[in-house]
Amino acid sequence: MTTRLATCSCGQLAARVAGDPIRVSVCHCLACQRRTGSVFAEQARFPRENVTISGVATQYVRTGDEGSRARFHFCPTCGAIVYYEVEGDETFWVIPVGAFADPGFPAPRVSVYEARMHAWVVMPPGIEHIR
Fold first, then answer.
1. Is 7 helix (H, G, I), strand (E, B) or coil?
2. Range of the domain at 58
3. How many domains, in total, are found in the chain?
């Protein structure tokens, strides 16, 4: 079984995952653009029972473009988000792919909020597109 480690920038907060992600997606919503400081966010979803959290986290609840809420868990020292949960679907932890710092991480299979996607962004072939 594959094991991966996601950490914050300073290493204080970590999420160790066992197994492959249930879903890897890219989100182009404006809230994710602001959260990441990039033009989209990429995240992987794992069943909670496959994730072990260590370290201290601070939480922030954000309301997305269409009213859904997410609770972000970030390092109080360096500020990096290591995991979050989507309100109403608490059976999963969602982990930003960049927190794994693994160029071999599986590619996204779904691209959401493409109506807000920057015109120059090109998604991988075969990805599911959701406007």
1. strand
2. 3-129
3. 1
